[in-house]
């Protein structure tokens, strides 16, 4: 009470403030970089982006890098072999062949909605060769499953994503299968017929005039 009374009798403020001088700048993040290209040209990969903390050497709260799941296309895969063709010869040794087709269509592309900090505990979402939309998938973690067709894997399942995949669309793959489209092997169609040497001519069919012999 006494201090207030004394202050009211004096001219000017009882307290004064001034800016602190020569203090270091508070650390802060600059904007995120653009997302990198996908780490693979087909199959599952990841893309990342970076940001820097300023001033250089300072420690900002948070992570300096993020990554998210990306899938450019399902890697092309070989379809089943066709049945073996007929042997190239009707007797003796020949060759036969079988063929297979490189499947490039029906490719799934999915983009994760959010980026994920590096080192996050993520599980694998299985994706399959189908037109099924992922919009109705529950926002839960899913366990890895390998989609297969007649023992040929359609796609690997080593992609990391947590939660819904909001975008799924079919695209065409531009890569090629590794290996041969045609396979061949030797075949044996059995023994070929072989004529023996001619026998001696038989006696003439008549004893005079015109006849035949064999």
TrEMBL record:
SUPFAM superfamilies per record: TSP-1 type 1 repeat (SSF82895)
InterPro entries, alphabetized: Compl_asym_regulator, TSP1_rpt, TSP1_rpt_sf
Record bears the keyword Signal: no
Keywords assigned: Disulfide bond, Repeat
Any Pfam family matching the protein: TSP_1
Claim: Repeat is one of the keywords in the record: yes
Stated name of the protein: Thrombospondin type 1 domain-containing protein
Organism listed in the record: Wuchereria bancrofti
Organism lineage string: Eukaryota, Metazoa, Ecdysozoa, Nematoda, Chromadorea
